[in-house]
Fold these 2 entries.
Entry 1:
Amino acid sequence: MRRVKQLIFLGLLSLLIISGCSQRKNPLQMNIGNGGLFENTFEFSSLENILNDPVGRTLLVYLPPGYQEGIASNYKYPILFLLHGFKENGRSYEQFYNIKTIADQMTSTGEIQPMIIVLPDGSGRFGGSFFTNSVTPDGKNFGGRYEDYITKELFDHVLYNYGSTIRGIKYKVTQRDSTLYKDSIIVDTTCKIDTLEVPDCPPESIQYDTTIYKIPRDTTWKDTTATISDDTAYFRQNFGISGHGNGGYGALRIATDYPLMFGSVSAMSAPLSSDSIFLRPLIEAFFVSNRVAKCSDGYRQINIDPDSLDRLSSFFFAMAVTFSPHDPASTDYRSFFKLAPPNKGVDLPFDSCGNIVTSIWQEWLKNDIKTRVLNILNVYPDTLRNLKIYIDCGDKDEFGFNEQAVVFYNALLGKVPASNITFETYSGYPGYPALNNSFIYDRLRKVLKFHSDCFTAP
């Protein structure tokens, strides 16, 4: 009898436990929707170069949970271009920092609105392109036109193939530099696409993607024209650009070069001020890391094989490819390094004694983000009035980018509305300092939230 009572008691207890569990929500469980991360390889003519870097690049595009249903309902997805850091490529944000997992979770919990995230490859021979056009002084391609690659070829491709705020229009910018802001318009020829309907565009313009658009190749096409002006805030506010390191530099440069295209920009641990006060310690470190005595022949004998260079030296040579390809008409070879026949190469901004070469340094300063932005604002004070800016950096950045970020932020105060710029420094913890490549997983959450708050779609 006692045995029977024990069994009845245990049975009732089990029912209570099951009932209790079924009635309460387990805080450890979340219904996380699955977005998609799609990878393709394309050739981009903008990336033709003399260094034998590939023109074929892998492109990853993240589509949020419910994307296909959203497209069917004409949902207007905002787009974020996310540029990778130094010594990385388009796959790095997923391979090292789990961007899909972060975006899926934040979208599903309502922390961010659904968005398309574009992850291009901007790697170069020495580890980075700074997503900037690399041309010789006579205007010829050197390392590749990476800014054109993003703003022209890639921008067109993304708008044609993925649902967006203004879907299916092919864009180009008639004036590249935002110093020509008052004359700049985004204008073009071609397409109007609504949900899955056949677009009105000439066949040479459309990118066929049968997983998204069911477009018969014998369609009768007609030309249309769309003009996007500064008054079309909805367009601008729903395109953002971000990046880490050399990608953060590229993001800020592109956003300020094209103020009509992007409404928000963020830069994580990026080089934002190249004042000589920051350059000199890095020059000293360059000689030390290469074990070269100043004013010796060792400088000319540095092995510039990318696999042999340390991170700092690679950074210098990558910047030289971007900012100071050697002028074919110049006979000054004090800081010249040959990269391709017959006599094509780059100039570093310092010679074998560590002295700054003024002519080359001036070329680097022209590409300095702080200098560029201040020059733009001095000519057209309202140029960036609609651009939201977020910058951050770890307090132990080994390249001194944290100090550069402070200088950049302070230079912009009073030049742009205070509410338009956010600056954060962050710390590590014992044994794990906040270096240039640290805590990117955590910073990505901040960046996605920042851009989501700036977007106005749907």
Entry 2:
Amino acid sequence: MLAHLYRRRYSWYSMSPPKPGAEMRMRLSARLSRITASWRRPSMHRLAISFAIACTLTFGLDQWLHHQIESSGQAENTLTQGLFGVAAIYHRLVTSSPRKPVPRYTALVTLSASASPPGLSVFNTCQERGFLGSVLTTLSRSHPTVVVIDKYFGKDTCPAADPGTAALVDGVRALCESHVKVVVGRAVNSEARSQAGVSRSYPLDPALSFGQNGTCVSEGVLNIDLDLRRVDLWWPNVQPVNGIQGAPPSLALAAALAASPDLLANGRLAGWSAGSPPPYVSFLKENQFRRYNLQARSLVCGTQGRACTYDELSPAVRELAHRPVIVIGEDIPELDRHDTVIGDIPGYMLQANYIESLLDDRVIRPVAEGWNLVTGLVVFVGFEYILWRFHRAPLAAVWRLIVLFGGVSLVIYLSVVLLGYYLNPAAVSIIAVLLRVADLALGTLPGSYERAPT
């Protein structure tokens, strides 16, 4: 009797209430146990099939996405926008350096309806040339290092004796006389680009000659890569520009070389050649350029929009005009705008981002696709092993998966920030894991299973 009472008393004292959160953890563990109870070790043959299908799907999606963008010029449908959204998030995560990038080299001059004098339209090409000539003459009196014009000037667009064209040529000549380097855009012929297939040598549209080639005026190709996260340095399959033998440089590279002639001998671009793949860049947001953005009308004076003397310039204009690289371009709705990882921005701001990245050594070399596949395979095998090995301890499996994905993320981040290599195993590893989960649920892939050890 006493022993029975003692046992009851002991049991009553030992029944303490559960700790906060213990019941929730028990329920979560039970639910995970039910999910992973059927997780069995697949044969190597089965794993190989899953990963091979993942590689095929990754390659197919990549090719389809590029085809969609090349045919339409932008990501128009929901699927392509979603894929670009995922790529944008990944790019921003891996390129977010501890040193927050800011505009260090460039200032912008905006040509638009609101930034130009009343009555001047950017669609009146010949009239705009005269206005731009006055802007260039004003800049020549503040002595920047480089002036980049994110435009191309057709040879026969305006009449031979057009006063606007004459003013534009005079503005370029004034910059040259002030020892300012000028970089002008050239465009690949649109008819040649619209033809099916890939040509070995695309022609350039005939361009206006400024008579200063080889001295202070250089040219760069305006066209950009379909993948806006990457900057093309050279265009090997485009005819040479004036004054340069071999593959013509992009506008961004021509501008960066004008500001820093030793660019290709130092830093991450050292040893880069025309045959190298285009590097990835990190981006500055549009609002970061707001402080360094000049309205074009602030660089002309008088009712007729004449060039200003240095004394007529405001202190703010003088300060910004002294920045090493001035990028001039148009900001027109629905025209030359690009959907990038930082949102929809005008073309000249995209070029400024490329120039900033090149001069600030914020370029990232893409690794061979094989390394992405190997890293993706490591993630997939690690995922499979953890869920098989700890299938009876689901919470332990979850923590180890967090460590796995966290460790892989850290390795990718360090490879970008410290080594300058763009490693991207995300697509193939995610698709492989999803296929494995679908295989577990549906059992559609051929192969035998072995039960995990107890």
